[in-house]
Amino acid sequence: MNQIWKRTVISSLITASLASITLMPAKPAAADDKIFRDIGIGAAASVTSGAVRRRGSVLNNAVKGAAAGAAVNLVNGTRSPRDQRRRNLRQDIGVGAAASTATGAITRGGKDTLGDAVDGAVAGAAINLLTNRK
C-alpha cells in the first residue's frame, strides 16, 4: 500500500510541476518589454553620463546603468496600477543612484562612489522623463 501511495503522489507532483512550468511562459510579454526598455534607457544614460564626466569604462557604466534601470522598474512595479502610470521622479533618481552605487561597489570595489551615484541618478531621471505618462 505504501508503494502505491508513493507512486501516486510522486507522479501527481511531477505532473503538476510540469504543467506549471509549461503554463508559466503564457504570461503576457508586455511586462518584459518595460523592463528591457528601462534597462536600455538606464544603460544609455549611464554611458552618456560617464562619457561627459570622463570616468569609467563604457562597459562598466553600461552595467551600472542597466542595474539602475532594472531597479527603477522593479520599484515601480511594486506600486499600485494607478500609481504606476505616473512615476515619482525623486524615487526613480534615488533608486537609480542606490542601485548604481551598489553595482559600482561590486564591480570596481567602490573606487568612485559619488560618480557611481551620479551615473545612477542620471539613469533614473532619464527613465522617469522618457517613460512618465501623465
Describe the model.
This protein is elongated. The protein is mostly helical and 134 residues long. Helices cover 81% and strands 0% of the residues. It has one domain.
Number of separate structural domains: 1
Task: Please trace the helix and strand order, writing H or E for each element.
Answer: HHHHHH
Report the structural category.
mainly alpha
Largest sheet: none
Which overall shape is indicated by the principal axes computed on the Cα atoms? elongated
Characterize the quaternary organization of these chains.
single chain
N- to C-terminal distance:
64 Å
Rg value:
21 Å
In a few lines, what is going on in this structure?
By secondary structure, the protein is mostly helical. It has 6 helices and no strands. The protein has one domain.
For this entry, give a set of tags.
mainly alpha; elongated; 134 residues; 81% helix
Q: Could you give the topology of this structure?
A:
Layout: H1 2-23, H2 30-53, H3 58-77, H4 81-84, H5 89-108, H6 113-131
